[in-house]
Amino acid sequence: MIGLPGLMRERRGLGLAFAAAHFVHLAALSAFFAISGDAPPVVTLVGGGLGYLGIAALVATSTDTAMRAMRGNWLRLHRTVTWYIWAIFLLSYVRRAVAAPEFILPVALLIVAAAVKLAAPRAIPRS
């Protein structure tokens, strides 16, 4: 089992895997809407579109060179986008959990993930 230090060490690879999976998801959604002839709701286009643009920005700035060039703006960008994506997932699953109790577990996991993310900087000793 991988612990917090291992996750921190592998965070770039995990983030790129997350992005790859979600761009496959975007391709599948695009194909679905193209085949069905339906248009996604405007909220989905705007909210999800911003999310995908944010993920693309994270991928584009996931190098050490970009990190150094952006300085503190790199951290602001990555924090803002990760919390935005977290909020999209939370809102999506909370809405579903109201009607289907099986979505309560994903909501709980998202809340735990937020708690771990907020607590992690305090858990790592400073030198």
Helical content stands at over 70%
Average residue-wise pLDDT: 91
Report low-confidence residues grouped into runs of 5 or more: none
Rg over alpha carbons = 17 Å
Q: What composes the largest sheet?
A: none
Oligomer: single chain
Please tell me what the overall shape is: globular
Number of E strands:
0
Compute the separation of the termini in Å.
Answer: 26 Å
Order of helices and strands: HHHHHH
Which structural class fits the helix and strand makeup? mainly alpha
The proportion of strand residues reads under 5%
**Helical segment count:** 6
Question: What does this protein structure show overall?
Answer:
- The chain is an all-alpha fold.
- It is built from six helices and no strands.
- It has helices spanning 4-9, 11-36, 42-60, 64-70, 72-99, 104-123.
- The model has no long low-confidence stretch (mean pLDDT 91).
